[in-house]
Design the sequence.
């Protein structure tokens, strides 16, 4: 939560902000659900923050803010998420495990120290006496001290074993939560957060191999949604995602970039290979006539537009993104259902 947002929701203007939020939600055509209210409070409370900029971008591009989009925005921009809760819970379990192991170790340590003292006393007594019954009781004492040490060691071993298992289970669980936090729930592709991280990483690490970024957008998706409803719109998103996943195996990294936009990172692939892959996707997407599952209405073919840019030496992730986006818009302006490369801004289809 930014300091600006904190001030906005607890300052003298807080109620007028809340009223404004309702009015702006109505203007934008989003339902006043609790989640949308929260998103809009953050957006208008800090319009220049990352969430504010993203909502403004969506509105400027007339992208429908469906429940799905709201959830994506919340997962990415709202301060508390499932991941942080899970990490807090895992931290508490780890604390408990560590405290319990530390106490088992302390107990074993004390038993070992007592045992050391018992041995030292026994050694002194043995040197000082030759009396058989004293020696016998000494051996009896040593034997039970040894049993005690063995028992404590076995308890400690068991405790460590179960603690190891618990830590391994937690690690697996957290790995799953981390994967979920990086995955778009509708399409199962990587989400925007995962994409942003990957793009920064590959741009920073690029050596001499080519690196290309493509942005793809479903043509007239809004019209599609408005005509057939969000559920059918979601199926179209899944349809395109299935094809993208199939074509983008290996090193290629495909993500749902936002609404009906997708992004693909092509590490080590030059313009020729990327053009061929995008053309393949474009043709495959448009090759089928879809049907509305609930009514069997013919939905016709879906088409996509794409733009791509090859990374220039030293170029930042956001500059690369901007060039790929400009190429995508060239495809849109050029009549859609085509692929455009950024450097030449020529239609490849
Ligand atoms: P889904 O509905 O979960 O379907 C998964 C896969 O099951 C499909 O993969 C397809 O192989 C098969 N399948 C499901 N329903 C049918 C059907 O009525 N007829 C046939 N022949 N096969 C079916 P596919 O084709 O790659 O589609 C992936 C996703 O794309 C689907 O997931 C669905 O969400 C969407 N989709 C694909 N085609 C259509 C369509 O014609 N209409 C609608 N509404 N959605 C579609």
Sequence:
């Amino acid at each position: 939560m930014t300091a600006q947002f904190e001030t906005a929701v607890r300052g003298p203007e807080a109620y007028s902000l809340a009223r404004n939020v309702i009015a702006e939600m109505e203007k934008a055509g989003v339902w006043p659900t609790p989640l949308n209210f929260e998103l809009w409070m953050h957006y208008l409370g800090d319009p220049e923050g990352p969430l504010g900029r993203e909502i403004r971008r969506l509105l400027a591009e007339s992208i429908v803010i469906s429940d799905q989009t709201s959830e994506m925005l919340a997962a990415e921009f709202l301060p508390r998420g499932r991941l942080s809760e899970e990490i807090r819970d895992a931290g508490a379990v780890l604390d408990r495990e560590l405290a319990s192991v530390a106490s088992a170790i302390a107990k074993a340590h004390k038993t070992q120290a007592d045992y050391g003292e018992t041995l030292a006393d026994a050694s002194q007594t043995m040197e000082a006496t030759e009396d058989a019954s004293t020696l016998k009781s000494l051996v009896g004492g040593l034997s039970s001290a040894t049993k005690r040490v063995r028992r404590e060691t076995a308890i400690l071993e068991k405790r460590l074993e179960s603690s190891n298992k618990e830590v391994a289970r937690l690690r697996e669980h957290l790995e799953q939560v981390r994967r979920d936090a990086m995955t778009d729930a509708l399409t199962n592709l990587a989400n925007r957060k995962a994409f942003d991280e990957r793009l920064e990483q590959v741009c920073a690490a690029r050596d001499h191999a080519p690196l290309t970024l493509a942005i793809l957008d479903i043509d007239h998706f809004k019209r599609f949604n408005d005509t057939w409803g969000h559920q059918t719109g979601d199926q179209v998103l899944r349809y395109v995602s299935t094809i993208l996943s199939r074509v983008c195996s290996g090193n290629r990294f495909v993500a749902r970039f936002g609404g009906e936009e997708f992004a693909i990172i092509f590490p080590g692939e030059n313009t020729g290979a990327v053009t061929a892959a995008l053309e393949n996707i474009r043709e495959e997407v448009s090759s089928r006539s879809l049907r509305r599952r609930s009514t069997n209405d013919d939905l016709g073919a879906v088409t996509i537009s794409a733009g791509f840019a090859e990374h220039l030496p030293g170029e930042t992730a956001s500059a690369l993104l901007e060039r790929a986006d400009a190429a995508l818009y060239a495809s849109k302006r050029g009549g859609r259902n085509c692929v455009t490369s950024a450097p030449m801004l020529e239609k490849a289809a």
Notes: The CA atoms of residues 229 and 265 lie 31 Å apart. Residues 132-181 form the longest helix (50 residues).
